[in-house]
Design brief:
Elements lengths: L1 E8 L6 H11 L1 H4 L4 E8 L6 H7 L3 E4 L5 H11 L4 E5 L3 E2 L2 H13 L2 E10 L4 H17 L6 E5 H6 L11 H16 L2 E12 L2 H5 L2 H13 L1 H5 L6 H4 L4
Parallel strand pairs: 1-2, 1-4, 2-3, 6-8
Antiparallel strand pairs: 4-7, 5-8, 6-7
Helix pairs in contact: 1-5
Length: 241
């Protein structure tokens, strides 16, 4: 069994080294089962030392010139050797316990795909409440957070991967298509919750309440126009780090 851990990364030199160390430590849960881990970082046209730091950490680095998270994940997946794919964001730190839960789902033979709940690495009043709300929605709908998605590689390729027209919410679109495939194949999609993924709260520091509120308003009033427009999705693409 080979598990490919795929990390999309755009100008992540501040966080990627620590994140990759966490992933490599967490991958011990796969090694205990005799499984191999294939760690891939997709450098999404970074202008900093992201790629060099990833290589130094022992990751295999591939390049995606179009600055778009969906494309970066697809490019990483295209290079993957794994039977299963685990997508983890470059500002996130999974634990061995979380990877052990993923392994248990794989071993069950009943799971096609999944995600997990998340928690931020800093306390923030609005951020904490937003995260709690998202975790509830995620568990009820079986929508995976983009920061952590796992699925059978064959299933990912069968549905065509992430939608390259989307600059945001591509994980929700993928979740819906994976859920549909799981239903027709007699399997399930799960959201793990006992060991949440630790992820960066930096957006709460880097963007004002007004900026975040303006994005949320656009996304609610004009969802399709917003998520298909790179400039409208500035919290992911304007380079603030």
């Amino acid at each position: 069994m080979i598990i490919s851990v795929i990390v999309p990364a755009f100008n992540e030199e501040k966080l990627i080294a620590a994140s990759l160390r966490s992933m490599q430590l967490a991958a011990g849960s796969f090694a205990e089962r005799g499984w191999e881990t294939d760690l891939i970082v997709c450098d999404n046209n970074s202008s900093d030392a992201t790629a060099a730091l990833a290589r130094t950490a022992g990751a295999r680095v591939v390049f995606e010139p179009v600055n778009q998270i969906a494309r970066a994940r697809n490019t990483g997946a295209a290079a993957a050797r794994g039977d299963w794919l685990v997508f983890v964001d470059a500002d996130s730190r999974p634990t061995p316990e979380l990877f052990a839960e993923v392994a248990a789902q794989i071993e069950s033979g009943r799971c096609l795909a999944g995600g997990c709940t998340v928690r931020m690495d800093e306390r923030h009043f609005l951020g904490d409440r937003g995260t709690s709300l998202w975790n509830l929605v995620s568990r009820l709908t079986k929508w995976a957070a983009g920061s952590f998605i796992f699925c059978q590689a064959a299933a990912f390729r069968q549905i065509g991967g992430f939608d390259s027209e989307l600059f945001a919410s591509e994980e929700l679109d993928l979740s819906k298509r994976l859920k549909k495939l799981a239903r027709v194949s007699g399997k399930k999609m799960v959201i793990l919750h006992r060991h949440p993924l630790l992820t960066s709260a930096r957006k709460m520091r880097l963007y004002s309440r007004a900026e975040l509120a303006a994005f949320i308003k656009k996304a609610i009033l004009h969802p399709r126009q917003t998520v298909t427009n790179r400039d409208a999705c500035s919290p992911w693409y304007d380079g603030r780090r």
